[in-house]
Amino acid sequence: MASVAWCVTGGGLGIRSTAELLRRFREVYKLNITLFLTRWGFEVARIFGVLSVLRGVASGGYYQEFLVEEQGMYYIGRLNMGRYKLLVIAPATANSVAKMVLGIADSIASALYSQAVKSGTPVVVLPTDAPGDDGFIETETPCYIDRALCSYTDCGVCLASGVCPVNAITSVDGFVRIDLSRCIGCERCVSVCPRGAVRCWERVRLLPREVDVENIERLGRMPGTHVVRSVSELEEVVKKLLNL
Question: In this structure, how many other beta carbons lie within 10 angstroms of the beta carbon of residue 23?
Answer without folding.
Answer: 16
